[in-house]
Amino acid sequence: MDILIWVFLAVIFAIFELITTAFFLVWFSVGSIVAAILNYLGFDVYVQFIAFVIVSLVLILSTRKFADRITPEPSKKTTADRLIGKHGKIIRKLEDNNYIVHVGGEEWSAVGEDIDVNDKVEIVGIDSIKLIIKKID
Asked: pTM for this one?
């Protein structure tokens, strides 16, 4: 294999690493550079490929915990998730155990048991697009 192929692969892996935020492809780029150096030193193509695989895998496995630690946790999945644990007020009762609750400056559909208009409630969960509420005593 020509040295330019390894250098080309190193550059491609580096570019894709810059595009993504996975902190994964950079190690294939380093493996390609090691293989290019071995090519320059005259090693066989099999040795180059084996070195590429071993260096890449060792770097991936040794830095995975570090990458997980520095990668921030994604914020909550939906806007409604941020409402869990907050308090609101019932502004309208619909049929059965369905309500409209005012929480966080917005009105949401909610379900709960034995609640009246103007009662204070706590959001305890989410079921599809409805908040699950309980009355605060």
From this structure: 0.52
pLDDT per residue over 46-92, tens digit each? 999 999 999 999 999 998 887 777 766 665 556 667 888 999 999 99
How far is residue 72 from each of residues 62, 63, 66, 68, 76, measured CA to CA in Å?
A: 19, 16, 12, 8, 12
Using CA atoms of 52, 54, 55, 56 in order, give the dihedral in degrees to the nearest 10.
80
| Strand bridging mode 130-135 / 98-103 | unpaired
Q: What's the token pair of residue 77?
A: 């999945």
Closest CA to 89 of 97, 99, 79: 99
For 82-121, what is each residue's pLDDT tens digit?
888 999 999 999 988 899 999 988 899 999 988 989 999 9
**What is the C-alpha separation between 59 and 1, in angstroms, rounded?**
23
* Contact call for residues 87 and 115 (beta carbons, < 8 A): no
**CA–CA distance, 27 with 131 (Å, rounded to integer):** 45
